Amino acid sequence: MPPSPPGYARFKKLLFRLDPEVSHGLAMGALRAAAAVPGLARVLARRARVADPRLAQNLFGRTFANPVGLAAGFDKDAVAVRGWPALGFGFVEVGTVTPWPQAGNPRPRLFRFPEARSLQNAMGFNNRGMDALERRLSRFRRYGAAPLPLGINLGKNKATPPAGALADYEVLVRRLADLGDYLVVNLSSPNTPGLRDLQNEAFLRALLAMATGITSRPILVKLSPDLDPGAAVDLAEVAVTAGAAGIIAANTTTEYGLLPGAKDFGGLSGEVLREKSYGMLQALAARLFGRTVLVSVGGIDSGEEAYRRLRAGASLVQIYTGLVYEGPGLPRRINEELLRSMDRDGVGRIGELIGADL
Fold it and tell me: Which of 3, 123, 304, 338 is the most buried (most CB within 10 A)?
Protein backbone atom coordinates (compact mmCIF):
# COMPACT_ATOMS: atom_id res chain seq x y z
CA MET A 1 0.00 0.00 0.00
CA PRO A 2 1.52 3.36 -0.98
CA PRO A 3 1.91 5.86 1.85
CA SER A 4 -0.77 8.45 2.36
CA PRO A 5 -0.06 11.91 0.88
CA PRO A 6 2.41 14.05 2.87
CA GLY A 7 -0.23 16.68 3.60
CA TYR A 8 -2.53 14.21 5.25
CA ALA A 9 0.36 12.44 6.98
CA ARG A 10 1.18 15.66 8.83
CA PHE A 11 -2.45 16.32 9.66
CA LYS A 12 -2.89 12.72 10.82
CA LYS A 13 -0.10 13.15 13.36
CA LEU A 14 -2.10 15.96 14.94
CA LEU A 15 -5.38 14.05 14.82
CA PHE A 16 -3.83 10.93 16.32
CA ARG A 17 -2.72 12.91 19.37
CA LEU A 18 -6.39 13.43 20.18
CA ASP A 19 -8.99 11.00 21.44
CA PRO A 20 -10.32 9.07 18.41
CA GLU A 21 -13.88 10.32 18.89
CA VAL A 22 -12.68 13.91 19.15
CA SER A 23 -10.68 13.48 15.95
CA HIS A 24 -13.70 11.99 14.22
CA GLY A 25 -15.84 14.93 15.30
CA LEU A 26 -13.30 17.42 13.95
CA ALA A 27 -13.11 15.64 10.61
CA MET A 28 -16.89 15.53 10.30
CA GLY A 29 -17.12 19.19 11.26
CA ALA A 30 -14.64 20.14 8.55
CA LEU A 31 -16.59 18.21 5.94
CA ARG A 32 -19.88 19.79 7.01
CA ALA A 33 -18.30 23.25 6.90
CA ALA A 34 -16.97 22.69 3.40
CA ALA A 35 -20.38 21.50 2.21
CA ALA A 36 -22.02 24.62 3.69
CA VAL A 37 -19.93 27.03 1.59
CA PRO A 38 -21.85 27.77 -1.62
CA GLY A 39 -20.15 26.10 -4.55
CA LEU A 40 -17.19 24.75 -2.59
CA ALA A 41 -18.50 21.19 -2.30
CA ARG A 42 -19.08 21.08 -6.07
CA VAL A 43 -15.54 22.31 -6.77
CA LEU A 44 -14.06 19.73 -4.39
CA ALA A 45 -16.25 16.98 -5.86
CA ARG A 46 -15.03 17.76 -9.38
CA ARG A 47 -11.45 17.45 -8.18
CA ALA A 48 -12.05 14.21 -6.28
CA ARG A 49 -14.32 12.53 -8.80
CA VAL A 50 -12.83 10.01 -11.20
CA ALA A 51 -15.25 10.68 -14.03
CA ASP A 52 -14.86 7.56 -16.12
CA PRO A 53 -17.95 5.71 -17.38
CA ARG A 54 -16.06 2.40 -17.18
CA LEU A 55 -16.53 2.50 -13.39
CA ALA A 56 -20.29 3.10 -13.46
CA GLN A 57 -23.06 0.60 -12.67
CA ASN A 58 -26.83 0.76 -12.39
CA LEU A 59 -27.98 -0.80 -9.13
CA PHE A 60 -31.07 -0.35 -6.95
CA GLY A 61 -32.57 2.08 -9.46
CA ARG A 62 -29.68 4.54 -9.42
CA THR A 63 -26.38 5.03 -11.19
CA PHE A 64 -23.34 4.37 -9.03
CA ALA A 65 -20.59 6.42 -10.70
CA ASN A 66 -17.95 4.24 -9.06
CA PRO A 67 -18.01 1.20 -6.74
CA VAL A 68 -16.35 2.80 -3.69
CA GLY A 69 -18.72 3.63 -0.84
CA LEU A 70 -18.59 4.88 2.72
CA ALA A 71 -19.50 2.18 5.22
CA ALA A 72 -22.13 2.67 7.91
CA GLY A 73 -20.96 4.05 11.23
CA PHE A 74 -18.94 6.98 9.95
CA ASP A 75 -21.88 9.33 9.40
CA LYS A 76 -24.42 7.90 11.81
CA ASP A 77 -26.84 10.83 11.69
CA ALA A 78 -26.42 11.80 8.01
CA VAL A 79 -24.97 15.16 8.97
CA ALA A 80 -22.48 15.31 6.09
CA VAL A 81 -24.38 13.78 3.16
CA ARG A 82 -23.81 16.89 1.05
CA GLY A 83 -20.10 16.74 1.74
CA TRP A 84 -19.27 13.13 0.85
CA PRO A 85 -19.21 13.72 -2.93
CA ALA A 86 -16.28 16.07 -2.25
CA LEU A 87 -14.20 13.01 -1.35
CA GLY A 88 -15.01 11.10 -4.55
CA PHE A 89 -17.30 8.41 -3.16
CA GLY A 90 -19.69 6.54 -5.42
CA PHE A 91 -22.27 6.01 -2.68
CA VAL A 92 -22.78 6.54 1.05
CA GLU A 93 -24.42 4.49 3.79
CA VAL A 94 -25.60 6.40 6.86
CA GLY A 95 -26.55 5.06 10.30
CA THR A 96 -26.82 2.84 12.14
CA VAL A 97 -30.03 4.56 13.20
CA THR A 98 -32.33 3.29 15.95
CA PRO A 99 -35.97 4.23 16.63
CA TRP A 100 -35.08 6.24 19.74
CA PRO A 101 -31.97 8.34 20.38
CA GLN A 102 -29.33 6.63 22.47
CA ALA A 103 -25.94 7.62 23.84
CA GLY A 104 -24.21 4.34 23.12
CA ASN A 105 -21.73 2.61 25.38
CA PRO A 106 -19.53 4.37 27.97
CA ARG A 107 -16.27 5.99 26.86
CA PRO A 108 -13.57 5.20 25.97
CA ARG A 109 -15.09 3.07 23.25
CA LEU A 110 -12.94 3.68 20.17
CA PHE A 111 -9.28 2.65 19.96
CA ARG A 112 -6.58 2.94 17.30
CA PHE A 113 -3.90 0.35 16.55
CA PRO A 114 -1.70 2.23 14.04
CA GLU A 115 0.91 -0.51 13.69
CA ALA A 116 -1.84 -2.88 12.55
CA ARG A 117 -3.74 -0.17 10.64
CA SER A 118 -6.83 -1.26 12.54
CA LEU A 119 -9.50 0.07 14.90
CA GLN A 120 -11.51 -1.38 17.73
CA ASN A 121 -14.90 0.13 18.44
CA ALA A 122 -17.54 -0.48 21.07
CA MET A 123 -19.71 2.48 20.15
CA GLY A 124 -23.09 0.83 20.66
CA PHE A 125 -25.25 2.52 18.01
CA ASN A 126 -24.87 6.02 19.44
CA ASN A 127 -27.19 8.18 17.32
CA ARG A 128 -29.88 10.85 17.50
CA GLY A 129 -32.70 8.53 16.49
CA MET A 130 -34.99 8.17 13.52
CA ASP A 131 -36.86 11.45 13.99
CA ALA A 132 -33.69 13.48 13.56
CA LEU A 133 -32.55 11.39 10.61
CA GLU A 134 -35.94 11.67 8.96
CA ARG A 135 -35.94 15.47 9.26
CA ARG A 136 -32.46 15.71 7.77
CA LEU A 137 -33.02 13.35 4.86
CA SER A 138 -36.45 14.80 4.08
CA ARG A 139 -34.67 17.92 2.87
CA PHE A 140 -33.23 15.95 -0.01
CA ARG A 141 -36.64 14.56 -0.94
CA ARG A 142 -37.96 18.12 -1.29
CA TYR A 143 -35.24 18.98 -3.78
CA GLY A 144 -34.87 15.62 -5.54
CA ALA A 145 -32.50 12.77 -4.78
CA ALA A 146 -29.52 12.79 -2.42
CA PRO A 147 -26.27 13.82 -4.14
CA LEU A 148 -25.06 10.20 -4.11
CA PRO A 149 -26.86 6.85 -3.94
CA LEU A 150 -27.81 6.58 -0.28
CA GLY A 151 -28.20 3.58 1.98
CA ILE A 152 -29.72 3.71 5.48
CA ASN A 153 -28.47 1.21 8.05
CA LEU A 154 -31.11 0.14 10.61
CA GLY A 155 -30.66 -1.28 14.12
CA LYS A 156 -32.69 -1.96 17.23
CA ASN A 157 -32.35 0.07 20.43
CA LYS A 158 -30.20 -1.42 23.18
CA ALA A 159 -33.12 -1.33 25.63
CA THR A 160 -35.43 -3.22 23.29
CA PRO A 161 -35.78 -6.87 24.36
CA PRO A 162 -35.45 -9.61 21.72
CA ALA A 163 -39.24 -10.01 21.63
CA GLY A 164 -39.56 -6.37 20.56
CA ALA A 165 -36.79 -6.32 17.97
CA LEU A 166 -39.05 -6.89 14.99
CA ALA A 167 -41.20 -3.92 16.03
CA ASP A 168 -38.10 -1.69 16.16
CA TYR A 169 -37.17 -2.63 12.61
CA GLU A 170 -40.75 -2.20 11.43
CA VAL A 171 -41.05 1.36 12.66
CA LEU A 172 -37.71 2.21 11.05
CA VAL A 173 -38.74 0.76 7.70
CA ARG A 174 -42.08 2.57 7.75
CA ARG A 175 -40.51 5.93 8.60
CA LEU A 176 -37.32 5.87 6.53
CA ALA A 177 -37.79 3.61 3.51
CA ASP A 178 -38.69 6.41 1.10
CA LEU A 179 -35.67 8.48 2.10
CA GLY A 180 -32.93 6.14 0.90
CA ASP A 181 -32.08 4.16 -2.22
CA TYR A 182 -31.66 1.03 -0.15
CA LEU A 183 -32.04 -0.11 3.46
CA VAL A 184 -29.67 -2.32 5.43
CA VAL A 185 -30.81 -4.58 8.24
CA ASN A 186 -27.99 -4.63 10.77
CA LEU A 187 -28.13 -7.81 12.85
CA SER A 188 -24.38 -8.17 13.18
CA SER A 189 -22.91 -5.42 15.36
CA PRO A 190 -21.17 -6.92 18.40
CA ASN A 191 -21.87 -3.83 20.48
CA THR A 192 -25.59 -4.25 21.18
CA PRO A 193 -26.23 -7.16 23.57
CA GLY A 194 -28.21 -9.97 21.95
CA LEU A 195 -28.25 -8.42 18.48
CA ARG A 196 -26.20 -11.16 16.84
CA ASP A 197 -28.59 -13.74 18.27
CA LEU A 198 -31.11 -12.42 15.73
CA GLN A 199 -28.97 -13.84 12.93
CA ASN A 200 -31.20 -16.86 12.61
CA GLU A 201 -33.49 -18.17 9.89
CA ALA A 202 -36.80 -17.61 11.67
CA PHE A 203 -36.14 -14.00 12.59
CA LEU A 204 -34.64 -13.18 9.21
CA ARG A 205 -37.65 -14.59 7.36
CA ALA A 206 -40.06 -12.64 9.57
CA LEU A 207 -38.03 -9.46 9.23
CA LEU A 208 -37.79 -9.61 5.44
CA ALA A 209 -41.45 -10.54 5.06
CA MET A 210 -42.34 -7.48 7.11
CA ALA A 211 -39.96 -5.13 5.28
CA THR A 212 -40.77 -6.24 1.75
CA GLY A 213 -44.44 -6.04 2.59
CA ILE A 214 -44.04 -2.37 3.50
CA THR A 215 -41.68 -1.07 0.81
CA SER A 216 -40.34 -1.89 -2.61
CA ARG A 217 -37.00 -0.35 -1.68
CA PRO A 218 -34.13 -2.86 -1.82
CA ILE A 219 -33.39 -4.46 1.56
CA LEU A 220 -29.84 -5.64 2.24
CA VAL A 221 -28.66 -7.77 5.17
CA LYS A 222 -25.32 -7.13 6.89
CA LEU A 223 -23.75 -10.25 8.37
CA SER A 224 -21.09 -10.93 10.97
CA PRO A 225 -17.69 -12.30 9.92
CA ASP A 226 -17.74 -14.46 13.05
CA LEU A 227 -20.43 -16.77 11.71
CA ASP A 228 -19.26 -20.19 10.63
CA PRO A 229 -18.67 -19.81 6.85
CA GLY A 230 -21.17 -22.51 5.98
CA ALA A 231 -23.77 -21.05 8.33
CA ALA A 232 -23.18 -17.57 6.89
CA VAL A 233 -23.80 -18.79 3.36
CA ASP A 234 -26.90 -20.72 4.41
CA LEU A 235 -28.26 -17.67 6.23
CA ALA A 236 -27.50 -15.42 3.27
CA GLU A 237 -29.35 -17.80 0.97
CA VAL A 238 -32.34 -17.73 3.31
CA ALA A 239 -32.23 -13.93 3.17
CA VAL A 240 -32.10 -13.83 -0.63
CA THR A 241 -34.90 -16.37 -0.94
CA ALA A 242 -36.96 -14.29 1.48
CA GLY A 243 -36.53 -11.13 -0.59
CA ALA A 244 -33.21 -9.53 0.32
CA ALA A 245 -31.70 -7.58 -2.58
CA GLY A 246 -28.14 -7.91 -1.33
CA ILE A 247 -25.72 -9.07 1.33
CA ILE A 248 -23.08 -6.89 3.01
CA ALA A 249 -20.08 -8.84 4.27
CA ALA A 250 -18.98 -8.10 6.81
CA ASN A 251 -19.33 -6.24 10.10
CA THR A 252 -16.53 -6.02 12.67
CA THR A 253 -15.06 -9.14 14.26
CA THR A 254 -14.77 -10.24 17.87
CA GLU A 255 -11.88 -12.58 17.13
CA TYR A 256 -9.59 -10.60 19.41
CA GLY A 257 -6.67 -12.98 18.94
CA LEU A 258 -6.17 -11.44 15.51
CA LEU A 259 -4.86 -8.24 17.11
CA PRO A 260 -2.23 -8.29 19.88
CA GLY A 261 -3.23 -5.84 22.59
CA ALA A 262 -6.91 -5.78 21.65
CA LYS A 263 -9.52 -5.18 24.33
CA ASP A 264 -11.93 -7.97 25.20
CA PHE A 265 -14.97 -6.03 24.00
CA GLY A 266 -16.13 -4.26 20.87
CA GLY A 267 -15.34 -5.14 17.27
CA LEU A 268 -12.14 -5.05 15.21
CA SER A 269 -11.91 -3.47 11.77
CA GLY A 270 -9.25 -2.55 9.27
CA GLU A 271 -6.28 -4.55 8.08
CA VAL A 272 -6.77 -7.15 10.82
CA LEU A 273 -10.16 -8.03 9.30
CA ARG A 274 -8.99 -8.14 5.68
CA GLU A 275 -8.54 -11.85 5.05
CA LYS A 276 -11.52 -12.87 7.14
CA SER A 277 -13.74 -10.49 5.18
CA TYR A 278 -12.31 -11.65 1.86
CA GLY A 279 -12.83 -15.30 2.75
CA MET A 280 -16.45 -14.62 3.65
CA LEU A 281 -17.00 -12.89 0.31
CA GLN A 282 -15.53 -15.85 -1.53
CA ALA A 283 -17.85 -18.26 0.28
CA LEU A 284 -20.92 -16.13 -0.41
CA ALA A 285 -20.03 -15.58 -4.06
CA ALA A 286 -19.50 -19.28 -4.67
CA ARG A 287 -23.21 -19.84 -4.07
CA LEU A 288 -24.93 -16.49 -4.55
CA PHE A 289 -23.05 -14.61 -7.28
CA GLY A 290 -25.48 -13.59 -9.99
CA ARG A 291 -28.47 -14.05 -7.68
CA THR A 292 -27.97 -10.99 -5.49
CA VAL A 293 -25.77 -7.94 -5.02
CA LEU A 294 -22.72 -8.59 -2.85
CA VAL A 295 -21.08 -5.70 -1.01
CA SER A 296 -17.65 -6.26 0.52
CA VAL A 297 -16.30 -4.31 3.49
CA GLY A 298 -13.41 -4.93 5.87
CA GLY A 299 -9.75 -4.13 5.34
CA ILE A 300 -10.11 -2.36 1.98
CA ASP A 301 -7.58 0.47 1.80
CA SER A 302 -6.20 0.34 -1.75
CA GLY A 303 -7.20 -0.09 -5.36
CA GLU A 304 -5.44 -3.43 -5.36
CA GLU A 305 -7.62 -4.74 -2.55
CA ALA A 306 -10.78 -3.29 -4.09
CA TYR A 307 -9.86 -4.96 -7.39
CA ARG A 308 -9.45 -8.29 -5.60
CA ARG A 309 -12.91 -7.96 -3.99
CA LEU A 310 -14.56 -7.07 -7.30
CA ARG A 311 -12.96 -10.02 -9.07
CA ALA A 312 -14.14 -12.24 -6.21
CA GLY A 313 -17.77 -11.25 -6.84
CA ALA A 314 -18.48 -7.98 -5.04
CA SER A 315 -20.37 -5.37 -7.06
CA LEU A 316 -19.55 -2.67 -4.51
CA VAL A 317 -16.96 -2.11 -1.79
CA GLN A 318 -17.08 0.06 1.32
CA ILE A 319 -14.35 1.71 3.38
CA TYR A 320 -14.16 3.06 6.92
CA THR A 321 -10.92 2.31 8.76
CA GLY A 322 -8.88 2.83 5.60
CA LEU A 323 -10.20 6.38 5.44
CA VAL A 324 -8.84 7.03 8.94
CA TYR A 325 -5.35 5.84 8.05
CA GLU A 326 -5.14 6.93 4.41
CA GLY A 327 -7.08 10.18 4.51
CA PRO A 328 -9.75 11.87 2.40
CA GLY A 329 -7.99 11.20 -0.89
CA LEU A 330 -8.49 7.43 -0.55
CA PRO A 331 -11.68 7.06 -2.65
CA ARG A 332 -10.07 8.84 -5.59
CA ARG A 333 -6.87 6.82 -5.30
CA ILE A 334 -8.79 3.55 -5.19
CA ASN A 335 -10.73 4.47 -8.32
CA GLU A 336 -7.61 5.59 -10.16
CA GLU A 337 -5.87 2.34 -9.23
CA LEU A 338 -8.90 0.34 -10.35
CA LEU A 339 -8.73 1.94 -13.78
CA ARG A 340 -5.01 1.27 -14.09
CA SER A 341 -5.58 -2.38 -13.18
CA MET A 342 -8.43 -2.61 -15.68
CA ASP A 343 -6.20 -1.16 -18.40
CA ARG A 344 -3.45 -3.61 -17.49
CA ASP A 345 -5.82 -6.57 -17.72
CA GLY A 346 -7.71 -5.34 -20.77
CA VAL A 347 -11.02 -4.93 -18.93
CA GLY A 348 -13.38 -2.57 -20.73
CA ARG A 349 -16.01 -1.93 -18.06
CA ILE A 350 -16.40 -2.75 -14.41
CA GLY A 351 -19.19 -5.20 -15.16
CA GLU A 352 -16.64 -7.40 -16.95
CA LEU A 353 -14.45 -7.35 -13.85
CA ILE A 354 -17.01 -8.34 -11.23
CA GLY A 355 -16.82 -12.06 -10.54
CA ALA A 356 -13.96 -12.61 -12.99
CA ASP A 357 -12.27 -15.06 -10.61
CA LEU A 358 -15.33 -17.27 -10.20
Answer: 338
Distance separating alpha carbons of residues 179 and 109, to the nearest angstrom: 30
By the 8 A CB rule, do 271 and 319 touch? no
Instruction: Give dist(CA 192, CA 52) in Å, integer.
Output: 41
Q: Would you say 91 and 148 are in contact if contact means Cβ atoms under 8 Å apart?
A: yes
Q: What DSSP string runs through 182-208?
A: EEEEE---TTSTTGGGG-SHHHHHHHH
CB 316 within 8 Å of CB 63: no
DSSP labels for 49-84? ----GGG-EEETTEEESSSEEEPTTSSTT-TTTTTG
Tens-place pLDDT, residues 265-279: 999 999 999 999 999
Give the distance, in angstroms, between the CA of residue 96 and the centroid of all CA atoms in the same chain.
10
Answer whether 227's CB lies under 8 Å from 191's CB.
no
* Dihedral angle over CA of 190, 165, 237, 351, nearest 10: -70
What pairing do the DSSP bridges indicate for beta strands 316-319 and 110-113? unpaired
Determine what percent of the chain is predicted with pLDDT higher than 90.
79
pLDDT at 142 > cutoff 80:
no
Cβ neighbours of residue 4 under 8 Å, at least 6 residues apart? 12, 325, 326, 327, 329, 330
Q: pLDDT tens digits, residue range 146-166?
A: 789 999 999 999 999 999 999
Phi, psi values for residue 186, rounded to 5°: -95, 105
3-class secondary-structure state, position 124: coil
Query: pTM of the entire structure?
Result: 0.94
Segment 79-102 shows an average pLDDT of 93
Active site residues: 189
